[in-house]
């Protein structure tokens, strides 16, 4: 018999879509996949070369649970220079991806029944991670007029004596919205007043199309103390498979996270960590080129979407997604459980384009597309979607 925890866990929508796409492709169908949340670029050479060197130099033994000192120093330097926040090396823990850094944090902070506020739309894995460690996700509605960024007032209304953490994804997956400094100050203020931790998921921080990005921890010493800064190399340096993420927190929490990680997995692969050192110190040009390409694709995608009258979308300021409002098409579909799933299924089978239904992010009137894919494929996929919607 499986653990009762698993009764509440929803299988991943995104993995379900990938499986369907594979099946259809195996049948010989020409499918354009706009559902993937992974850079289409290869890992830059400096990172790959450093990993090969690490193997040849036999850097293949156990190391510190918190991560290689060289990598933590590189992260410390990056946070200092790029994010304007200074952490001690021992306040940083390197984990197997941002996902793992978040899970470690939740294990360290949550007691059974503790509440975690998740503003909608949210990244698919948050609720399941929280439930798996015995916490209670509290979903918070946000407003379209604010690009679905949560406000101080909305948070205030969701707080209970059991609230322990709020998740802020900045830039957002799925909307690409970025919080301004003033918006973040309001959030910090309410969290400080109510003793709530802020889990600042900044994994898309380097994919930013606006002039300035503010890390929550950089706002003040008090803000830094209650913030868990989560970041990693999956998106910024196209290193999804290497599994390198990290948390930067206050010292007490960092020690707890390191102890948890030490018992569960020891530490992420040392080879990946050596690659990470070069990713952070020698791949800035490659990251800038990728961001430039994403921006070009974003502008291209928007120019097509603007021509489809019956939809709307959030103008992204970062990340590589577009969150598209399809609510005006509701009366053209029959569905039982979810409109966005019905729409996405029919778009896949009839329009030959794979997208992620908005229900995966808690909002059934939307779909998400990714522009982390080849530019020609993106254009073809969008044109197919346009034809599909216009012929409904
Ligand atoms: C918002 C957000 N956080 C975290 C992650 C996980 O990243 P990693 O590959 O570092 O585990 C993702 C990946 O899609 C994400 O979109």
Structural overview:
This protein is an alpha/beta fold. The protein has two domains: 4-42 and 285-390, Aspartate Aminotransferase, domain 1, CATH 3.90.1150; 61-282, Type I PLP-dependent aspartate aminotransferase-like (Major domain) (Aspartate Aminotransferase, domain 2), CATH 3.40.640.10. It is built from 13 helices and 13 strands. It has helices at residues 13-26, 45-56, 69-83, 97-109, 125-132, 152-158, 181-193, 221-226, 251-264, 270-282, 284-305, 339-351, 375-390, and strands at residues 32-33, 92-95, 115-119, 136-140, 163-169, 197-201, 227-232, 245-248, 312-313, 321-325, 353-354, 356-357, 366-370. The strands form three sheets. A seven-stranded mixed β-sheet has the order 2-8-7-6-5-3-4, sandwiched between helices. Strands 9-10-13-12 form a four-stranded antiparallel β-sheet. The protein has a two-stranded parallel sheet with strand order 1-11. α2 runs antiparallel to α10 (270-282), α4 (97-109) crosses α9 (251-264) and α11 runs parallel beside α13 (375-390). The chain starts with 12 loop residues before the first helix and ends with a helix. The model has no long low-confidence stretch (mean pLDDT 96). The structure holds pyridoxal-5'-phosphate. Residues 37, 97-99, 123, 169, 173, 201, 203, 232, 234, 240, 245 line the site of pyridoxal-5'-phosphate.
């Amino acid at each position: 018999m499986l653990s009762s925890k698993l009764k509440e866990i929803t299988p991943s929508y995104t993995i379900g879509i990938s499986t369907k796409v594979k099946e259809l492709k195996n049948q010989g169908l020409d499918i354009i996949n706009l559902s993937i949340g992974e850079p289409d670029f290869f890992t830059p050479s400096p990172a790959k070369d450093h990993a090969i060197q690490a193997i040849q130099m036999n850097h293949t033994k156990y190391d510190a649970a918190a991560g290689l000192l060289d990598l933590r120093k590189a992260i410390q330097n990056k946070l200092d220079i790029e994010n304007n926040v200074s952490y001690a090396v021992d306040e940083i823990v390197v984990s197997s991806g941002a996902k793992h850094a978040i899970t470690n944090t939740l294990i360290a902070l949550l007691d059974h029944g503790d509440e975690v506020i998740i503003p909608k739309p949210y990244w698919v894995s948050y609720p399941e991670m929280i439930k798996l460690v015995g916490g209670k996700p509290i979903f918070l509605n946000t407003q379209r007029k604010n690009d679905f960024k949560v406000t101080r007032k909305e948070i205030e209304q969701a707080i209970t004596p059991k609230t322990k953490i709020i998740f802020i994804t900045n830039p957002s997956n799925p909307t690409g919205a970025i919080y301004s400094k003033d918006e973040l100050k309001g959030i910090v203020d309410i969290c400080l007043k109510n003793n709530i931790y802020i889990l600042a998921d900044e994994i898309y921080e380097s994919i930013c199309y606006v002039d300035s990005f503010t890390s929550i921890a950089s706002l003040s010493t008090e803000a830094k103390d209650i913030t868990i800064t989560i970041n990693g190399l999956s998106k910024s340096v196209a290193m999804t498979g290497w599994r390198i993420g990290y948390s930067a927190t206050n010292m007490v929490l960092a020690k707890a996270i390191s102890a948890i990680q030490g018992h569960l997995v020891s530490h992420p692969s040392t080879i990946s960590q050596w690659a990470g050192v070069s990713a952070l110190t020698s791949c800035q040009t490659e990251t800038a080129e990728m961001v430039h390409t994403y921006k070009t694709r974003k502008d291209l995608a928007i120019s097509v979407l603007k021509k489809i009258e019956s939809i709307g979308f959030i103008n992204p300021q970062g990340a590589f997604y577009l969150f598209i409002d399809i609510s005006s098409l509701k009366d053209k579909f029959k569905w039982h459980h979810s409109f966005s799933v019905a729409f996405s299924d029919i778009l896949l089978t009839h329009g030959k384009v794979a997208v992620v239904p908005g229900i995966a992010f808690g909002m059934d009137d939307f779909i998400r597309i990714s522009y982390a894919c080849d530019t020609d494929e993106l254009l073809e996929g969008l044109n197919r979607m346009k034809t599909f919607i216009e012929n409904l």
